[in-house]
């Protein structure tokens, strides 16, 4: 039976691949992007199974209008994919105020507002899927990507809470956490405008200013396979709340979580020193 999907950021990358794959298997897609004409080829091929809307996800009022229009058009939407976002590369001290605001507006505020906009519709229809594109960068960090990591760590916290609040309505949420994928992520990323001499020669400065980078052929992830995996997750009756994608994502996040747990366990006795006198902690 055909499903209906709502996807943001469909002009390229995972969003474009998902749209193509879903239409090819007979599903319907409500696709949003800044320039709908970039999907003219798919519209010509698939007709009214592709519904398009112009959307800058940082425009919350427009977001609500588009969401309402999509649900009105299709009646039911089975899966919502919050995919729009971009990378910001630069030392924290070098970034401009405008770059910081735009990163948070696009990568954090927009997904939150999308979730808020679709929730009444999903609840009214008895549930649905919500997939949020996150990253292994929501668990680990690299230098020169402080604001990008900030955005992904924020999404992890919001959507884990959102899942707890909305699962009672049949809304199942999954954070998609890819590793390095051979897309235009780095070539299309925003980059800090200045180069501070104090950081010259550091790994962070080299990453920011192109002296050190990872070639596409060295990235393990295949963007089309990531899109296929996201569709499989969206089809699941009992999807995970988080899904790592890629051998690098699994290895790096596994090692980071293991180290974090070991550090927490080593702090147990010290942590107890701040309890009230006479308080007995529950036994594990």
From TrEMBL:
Transmembrane segments: none annotated. The keyword Coiled coil applies. It comes from the Bacteria. Signal peptide: none annotated. Pfam families: adh_short. Residues 247-274 form a coiled coil. Keywords: Coiled coil, Oxidoreductase. Belongs to the short-chain dehydrogenases/reductases (SDR) family. NCBIfam families: PRK06482.1 (NF005065). This is SDR family oxidoreductase.
């Amino acid at each position: 039976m055909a499903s209906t999907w709502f996807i943001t950021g469909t002009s390229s990358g995972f969003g474009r691949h998902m749209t193509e794959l879903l239409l090819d298997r007979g599903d319907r897609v409500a696709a949003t992007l800044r320039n709908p004409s970039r999907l003219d080829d798919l519209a010509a091929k698939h007709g009214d199974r592709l519904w398009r809307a112009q959307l800058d996800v940082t425009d919350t009022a427009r977001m609500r209008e588009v969401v309402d229009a999509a649900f009105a058009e299709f009646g039911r939407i089975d899966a919502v994919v919050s995919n729009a976002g971009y990378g910001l590369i630069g030392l924290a001290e070098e970034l401009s105020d405008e770059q910081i605001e735009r990163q948070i507006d696009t990568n954090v505020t927009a997904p939150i507002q999308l979730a808020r906009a679709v929730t009444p519709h999903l609840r009214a229809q008895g549930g649905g899927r919500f997939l949020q594109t996150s990253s292994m960068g929501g668990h680990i960090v690299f230098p020169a990507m402080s604001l990008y990591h900030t955005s992904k760590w924020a999404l992890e916290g919001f959507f884990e809470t959102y899942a707890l609040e909305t699962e009672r309505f049949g809304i199942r949420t999954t954070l998609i956490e890819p590793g390095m994928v051979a897309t235009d992520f780095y070539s299309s990323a925003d980059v800090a405008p200045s180069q501070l001499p104090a950081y010259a020669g550091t790994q962070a400065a080299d990453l920011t200013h192109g002296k050190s980078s990872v070639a596409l052929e060295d990235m393990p992830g295949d963007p089309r396979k990531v899109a296929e995996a996201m569709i499989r997750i969206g089809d699941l009756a009992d999807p995970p709340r988080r899904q790592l994608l890629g051998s690098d994502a699994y290895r790096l996040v596994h090692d980071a979580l293991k180290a974090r747990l070991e550090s927490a366990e080593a702090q147990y006795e010290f942590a107890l020193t701040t309890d009230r006198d006479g308080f007995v902690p529950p036994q594990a």
